[in-house]
Amino acid sequence: MSGLETLREIIGRHARNSHGPSAIDGLTVAATDAPTALRSGIAEPSLALVVEGRKRTVSGDRMFDYAAGEFLITQLDLPVIGQVTAASAERPFLGIGLRLQPSQIASMLLESGITLAGSAAPAPGIAVASAGPPLLDALVHLTGLLDAPQDVPILAPLYRREVLWRLLTGPQGAVVRQIGLADGNLAHITPGGAVDPRPP
Questions:
Q1: Are 169 and 115 in contact (CB under 8 A)?
Q2: Domain range 3-181, its CATH number among 1.10.1740.10, 1.10.10.60, 2.60.120.10, 3.30.499.10
Q3: Rounded Cα–Cα distance for residues 83 and 40 (Å)
Q4: CA–CA distance from 25 to each of 66, 101, 129 (Å)?
Q5: Cβ(69)–Cβ(131) under 8 Å?
Q6: Residue-range domain boundaries for the chain
Q7: What is the spatial distance between Cα 144 and Cα 154, in angstroms, rounded to a whole number?
Q8: Contact 177/116 with Cβ under 8 angstroms?
Q9: How many beta carbons lie within 10 A of that of residue 122, not counting itself?
Q10: Is the pTM of this model over 0.70?
């Protein structure tokens, strides 16, 4: 069974025509059996994965359509308009949202010494990409804890780190790095482009 199929089963068990926070801090699960009206709000640094159906997000004059297996990532607090555009009783819309903490990303940048070469140009504030198997598997690990609430306090922080690492090393890694760089506690960056963990 693929990661996307597993996520469909998990969300189907925990979200029925609903959208809201879960037992895992920062994780939301959503399901709806019909397209929704336009909804405006502020998108904080976050990941939004479509597991089934389609969704549209509008930021300023830019429109992002994304479908099953694709995710939207936001690096700034941005005003957006969102809408589920494809959903039915037979094939409901299913989605996952995960809030991204700048301090956690900054810590991972320092720990890994990941290169920032090529990141001098500002990354887009919002972007869409396909979720590959490593990221989907990490999200299965994290979301699957909804079936084992007793494991959440111990395993959720580990699985969240797995998700962050897959994002940092994935196609939208530059966007995620910018979220970490926004954290004021991040150490200085060396001239060669790598994170320097030593005090300035």
A1: no
A2: 2.60.120.10
A3: 9
A4: 25, 11, 24
A5: yes
A6: 3-181
A7: 14
A8: yes
A9: 10
A10: yes
Structure tokens at 14: 């925990």
pLDDT score, position 122: 62
The letter for the amino acid at 8 is R
Give the Cβ contact number of residue 69 at 10 Å.
Answer: 17
Q: Among residues 45, 47, 67, which one has the least CA distance to residue 56?
A: 67
pLDDT, tens digit (0-9, with 9 covering 90-100), for 151-199: 999 999 999 999 999 999 998 898 999 898 877 665 444 334 444 443 3
Q: Over 55-102, what HEC string results?
A: EEEEECCEEEEEECCEEEEECCCEEEEEEEEECCCCCCEEEEEEECCH
Contacts of 120 (CB under 8 A, 6+ apart): none
- State the residue for tokens 């997000």: 57
